C-alpha cells in the first residue's frame, strides 16, 4: 500500500478522475494535488521541512503552466541529495503521442516510467508493487 500519491497536473477533470481511480484501487491512503511543477516542488520542500517524508508516487503531466513536467524533472534533479526523494516513483502520465516526448522522458534518470493517460487500477497495482520493491531495496 502507498501512503501518499502526488498528482501533478493542471487539469481539474483529470485530477478528479485520477483521484477516483486511486481511491477505487484502495492502494493509497492520501492523494494530494499540485497544479504545476512549481507547486509540486514547493509541496515536496514543505513535506520534508515538516518531517513528513516524501510521497510514494508522483504522477507527472508534461504540459502545465509556469513549470511543465520536464522542467520539474530538471529542477528536481538539481536539488541537493537530502531534498530529493530516493524511494519515490516518478511517473510521467501524459496524453502526448510524440515519440520525442517519450524518449526524452525515458532517458531521465529520476523517471520510473512514461504512460499514456488515463491512469488505470492496473497501473496503480504495478506502482504499489514496484514502490514496495524500491523501499525494500533501499531500506533492507
Helix-strand blueprint:
Blueprint: E1 2-8, H1 12-25, E2 28-34, H2 37-49, E3 57-60, H3 69-77, E4 89-94, H4 99-106, E5 113-116, H5 121-139
Parallel strand pairs: 1-2, 1-3, 3-4, 4-5
Describe the protein in words.
With about 140 residues, the protein is of the alpha/beta class. The protein contains 5 helices and 5 strands, in the order βαβαβαβαβα. Strands 2-1-3-4-5 form a 5-stranded parallel β-sheet, sandwiched between helices. The model has no long low-confidence stretch (mean pLDDT about 90).
- Strand tally: 5
Figure out the total of helices. Answer: 5
Radius of gyration: 14 Å
Kindly report the average pLDDT value: 91
Strand order of the largest sheet: 2-1-3-4-5
Strand content: 15-25%
Low-confidence stretches: none
Largest sheet: 5 strands, parallel
Proportion of residues in helical segments: 40-55%
Gross morphology: globular
Structure characteristics:
140 residues; alpha/beta; globular
State the gist of this model:
The chain contains five helices and five strands.
